[in-house]
Amino acid sequence: MKYKTYLFYIIGLLSLTPFVNAFIALLLGVVTGYYFEGHYEQKKNDKYSKQLLKIAIVGLGFTLTLTDVIKVSSQSISITVLSILSIFLVGYWLSKFFKLSPKMCFLIASGTAICGGSAIAAVAPVIRAKNQDISKSLIAIFLLNAVALFVFPILGKLFRMSDFQFGLWSAIAIHDTSSVAGASSSFSDVAFQIATITKLARTLWIIPLVFIASYYFKSKESKVSIPTFIILFVIATIVSTYFFNEEIKKYIKYFSKETLDLALFFIGTSLKPNKFKDFFSKPFLLAFILWLFISVFTFILIRLMY
């Protein structure tokens, strides 16, 4: 019925109001998506969430300076490199234990180490992964992202992490950029800034990863490109540094935050109970243990170092 479709989107627009924060927007999406299932197209919602997320991230760039970006990136580079190397080493060992193929292991390790689904999509054609392996690895990453969105802000507050600590931790231990943005924005605005900068810098590791995959799996396919929204984020930061005052940045920051909340609403609609049926498959267990390992490992490191 048409009116239910209209009502669904009207409820979604509540996410743009100051009364709905990131966590509530996500929860609202989960509940509304379940109740109104069949009255909207999930593919459209997924498309909306991705586009809105990109707008929110570029908007954040207009509120930062080059000094902010360089400072955060330099502070996080060592722990980023260490986390990536440790994930691949532990993933290699676990794949032997679970008797999973090297390609499946590489897909899941790439998604855990770099940026979730984007990394998997980038390396899959290079290593000539089977569609079944790609699907299983994406599902595993998706499920863990869903858990992280809710659990990380709670743990961050429970352990009284600083904004910087939580922003850094969420950027490294959560897979997809959307989930990093959602979890960190639920914690604080500063954590959101730290997490976004760190995650975007981390995403650039897709480039060497593709070439390593090409060499390791003896593939001639090594095509890779930098996501457009990262380039736009850098341009926005440059514009902000030289042309915007604090008053303008305040309004853009508000717009960016509300846009992110709406993106989280649409992400929430994709979290259906039937998607959690693969919880105990071997690929999921590998992804879960890797995620648990990097979450605990980097939590300890961050608490000690910062």
Polypeptide structure, described:
- The chain is mostly helical and 306 residues long.
- It has one domain (66-256, 275-305).
- Helix content is 79%, strand content 0%.
- It contains 14 helices and no strands.
- The chain has helices at 2-13, 22-35, 42-61, 66-98, 102-115, 117-127, 131-158, 163-173, 177-187, 189-203, 206-216, 228-243, 246-268, 282-305.
- Helix 2 (22-35) packs parallel to helix 13.
- The termini are far apart.
- The model has no long low-confidence stretch (mean pLDDT 86).
Structure, briefly:
With 306 residues, this protein is mainly α. It is 79% helix and 0% strand.
Question: Major beta sheet, specifics?
Answer: none
Tally of discrete structural domains: 1
Task: Specify the number of helices.
Answer: 14
Average pLDDT taken over every residue? 86
Query: Helices and strands, in N-to-C order?
Result: HHHHHHHHHHHHHH
Residue stretches low in confidence (pLDDT < 50, at least 5 long) are none
Q: Roughly what percent helix?
A: over 70%
* Number of strand segments: 0
Give the SSE map.
Blueprint: H1 2-13, H2 22-35, H3 42-61, H4 66-98, H5 102-115, H6 117-127, H7 131-158, H8 163-173, H9 177-187, H10 189-203, H11 206-216, H12 228-243, H13 246-268, H14 282-305
Helix pairs in contact: 2-13, 3-12, 3-13, 4-5, 4-10, 4-14, 5-6, 5-7, 5-14, 6-7, 6-11, 7-9, 7-14, 8-9, 8-10, 8-14, 9-10, 9-13
Characteristic terms for this protein:
306 residues, mainly alpha, 79% helix, 0% strand
